[in-house]
Amino acid sequence: MAGPGAGGWHVDDGGTNIRCRCETARMTDRTDAEARLRARLADVEARVAAQRRAVEGIVESARDSNVDDEHDPEGATLAWERQQAAALAAEAERERDQLLAALGRVADGTYGVCEVCGRPIPAARLEARPAATRCVEHAG
What's the pLDDT at 2? Predict the structure, then answer.
């Protein structure tokens, strides 16, 4: 009960739901994109939590010691470690925000579309940068 040609219509749900093959492909791509984004988001959330714990641990260890960052030779190391962990946490939070925005674009149907030219963003770019909003040409 399929319609015209390989790129034409096909029947779902025992003949009660007819869709264009391109619509089904978009729905599958949307589902795949959402699953990939959610998996990446889970990884990033774990990274955010780990970095926050690292910052808290460094702050707590410094609080319990009699370290004077300015005069203690170890003080500079503790300050650097604290700032490094804080920077990594901030970067993970930025990536989380970008992934959440990408999930919003999936929901509204604009995921994978360049915000500048409106053309599709290549799959390889989305694989490397799942939250990309621009094609390679307009990424700069």
Answer: 40
